[in-house]
Amino acid sequence: MVWVKSIENNYVNVDSIISITFDSKCNAFVAVVGHRDIRLQHKIYQHKALESFLQGTSPREDDEILEEMILMIEDAKKSGGMPILDFMKILNY
Q1: 37 — phi, psi (to 5°)?
Q2: Tens digit of each residue's pLDDT (9 = 90 or more) over 80-93
Q3: Less crowded by CB within 10 Å, the N or C end of the chain?
Q4: Would strands 84-85 and 38-46 be described as parallel, antiparallel, or unpaired?
Q5: Which pLDDT score, from 0 to 100, does residue 60 have?
Q6: pLDDT per residue over 39-71, tens digit each?
């Protein structure tokens, strides 16, 4: 069982995630979970484009980050190696 740690220190089971998308209102990637008529968004990665500009590098595209997240989730499910994915630590390299 693989879990994703949110910015608010909640844990979301990847099997309950309906979609992962970028929410421009909060400038973060969110995991959408839900059951029947209820949908909740958990912020899982805060986009820090300003830091990239200040460091003199170009920020990564949203599609690139999203693809990387999906590949990490799929790899974790296959291998069973990393039961908790914290994208704020993994993607801030």
Answers
A1: -95, 0
A2: 777 899 999 988 75
A3: C
A4: unpaired
A5: 81
A6: 999 999 987 766 666 777 777 888 999 999 999
Residue with tokens 């979301």: 12
Tell me the one-letter amino acid at 84: I
Nearest of 20, 45, 24, 47 to residue 33 by alpha carbon: 20
Partnered with residue 46 across adjacent β-strands are: 28
DSSP 86: -
User: pTM of the full predicted structure?
Assistant: 0.81
Question: Given phi > 0 = left and psi -120 to 50 = alpha, else beta, which region is 65?
Answer: alpha
Helix (H, G, I), strand (E, B), or coil: what is residue 65? Answer: helix
Sign, CA torsion 55/59/12/81: negative
* Paired tokens of 82: 């990393």
